[in-house]
Every structure is written in structure tokens, then in C-alpha cells.
């Protein structure tokens, strides 16, 4: 009997110790998140759309150019790349922290699918006085850009789709990465273990998203401490979980895109196969494909000039009254060094 009581006591002590350790970890991670936000204050202004507070940076004058960042990123990704500065020389550049990333809110009462985000940004752009714009999306941001074009074509003069995921593929690893978004258990994980694991795995993440290249020095200023906050990890996990279902649902819609579409991707991308961009190019009549040989996923960082070239081409297509490309140009596969 004493052995049984002793065993039960040990179990109770172990459970209490585990709960205590998790609680302490959660408190530390919450303090680190607040510290990260103080160290990286908003660089732009805020607008509120249907109860959602959006952080937006605007720079430059000219035809509007809107940029949507990828999963896990924020405005600082485009900022550090130099893309905002370069584009603002000729355009009114508008860059949002998408819901749950950077300093933008992400109410849990809503499922933030690409379509829902497209509607949100459509309303935000109208509030900013934008009636039409060139839309650039990188990685997961291409999903939002495409939905903007499908749901609000009157606002989208042309699309620039960089390193996008467009068609469903088998990705077993997505299940684990989506765990922090699961209510209950996911909340415990994202406040305790996920931030610690994310910090430890950051070098491996960079190796994958930038590979085969090395991260450029300009990326060193990217605020890792913001990316590993519990709130942003939940947003990133939720969007990881949506990727395959969204691609499955959207795969037959791309052919209906009627505005000029510039597709740009690296053929050595370790995150999203270049075959995705090639297939999209085949399915969208009149689209152009910019193939960056030997480039990885973060092409706006490593091949900024090439991405700017795709943006300029999109703007030129608009200035030419959206005339369809000649048949000889269809199927063109441009290589950029």
C-alpha cells in the first residue's frame, strides 16, 4: 500500500513540476514577445477594417503598388530586401502586415483564408483611396494576391506572383507545423515549446528558404524575435494548415484571370517546386514566366533587381492598356541571372 501511495505521490509531483515549468516558460515567452514589440515599434500607421487593426506602410508617389508578404514574415521582410525603397521611386508603395503578423491583429472569430484576407485588403485599399493597383504577392502572399484578382478584378490592374504555391502536393510535414493553431493543445504549445523550438530551428529555416544561396547581409536586420512570438506562430501555423486545402480549391480558377500576370520564381527553390510556377504559366494565357536560375525561395532578397523587373513589366502592361501579349511571347520562359 505504501508503495502505491509513494508512486501516486511521485506522479503528482511530476505533474505539478511539469505544469510549473510550462507556466514559467509561458510567462517568459510572453515577456519576450512584449520586449520584441517594444524593440520593433510600428514603422507605419494603422487603419481599422471591420474590427481588424491593420498595420500599413506607405511610401512614394505614383501608380499604387501593393505588396503581400509570405507566411511567417512581415513588412520588415520587404523593407530589408530594398524592394520598398526601389519601387517607391516610381510608385506609391503600400505594404501591409497581414493578419496576425507584425503589428496587425488577427481576431480568432474569423477564419483568415486567402479569400477573407483579399476582401479585408480590398476594403482597406478603398479606405486608403486606392481604386486600382498592381498587386505583388510572395509565397503565401500570392494566394491573397490571386484572390484579390478573382474577387475584385476591377481593383487589380496586374499581378506579380513570386515563389508561389498554387497546386496541392503531398506535404506530411505540414501537419506538425500546423499544430500551434489547434485550439486548446495548440495554445499550450505556442506559448511554451513553440517559441523555444522556433528560435533553435531558425538557422535551419534560413538554410531551407534561402538555399542554395546564403542569406544576404541585408537580411540580418530581420526581427527574428517578432517572428517567434506566440501570436505570430499561431498565424503562421494556421496558414500552413490552409495551404493544401486552398490550393486544391483554387486550382481550377487560375485560367479565369484576365489581367496581365507576371510569374517569377527560382528553379532551385527548396520550399516550393519551380514546377508550380511553370504549370501556372501554362494555364494562364498571356502570362510571362521569369525563371531565376539557381535561385531559392526568397528571391525578393537575393534577386531584388529581377523582382523589380517583373514589377516594371507589370506596370508597362498596364500602361499599354492591358493589351494581350503577342502569341510569340506566350510560353516565353525568361532566364534572369
CATH superfamily: Alpha/Beta hydrolase fold, catalytic domain
Shape: globular
Task: Give a short account of the largest sheet.
Answer: 9 strands, mixed
The spatial strand order of the largest sheet comes to 1-2-4-3-5-6-7-8-9
Tally of helical segments: 13
Rg value: 22 Å
**How many β-strand runs?**
9
What does this structure look like?
Helix 4 (114-127) packs across helix 5 and helix 7 (185-191) packs across helix 10 (230-250). This protein has 13 helices and nine strands. By secondary structure, the chain is of the alpha/beta class. It has one domain: Alpha/Beta hydrolase fold, catalytic domain (Rossmann fold, 3-Layer(aba) Sandwich), CATH 3.40.50.1820.
Which helices and strands appear, and what pairs or packs with what?
Blueprint lengths: L1 H38 L5 E5 L2 E8 L4 E5 L6 H7 L1 H5 L4 E5 L17 H14 L5 E6 L1 H12 L4 E7 L10 H5 L7 H7 L1 H18 L13 H4 L2 H21 L10 E6 L7 H10 L4 E5 L6 H4 L1 H16 L13 E4 L1
Parallel strand pairs: 3-4, 3-5, 5-6, 6-7, 7-8, 8-9
Antiparallel strand pairs: 1-2, 2-4
Helix pairs in contact: 4-5, 7-10
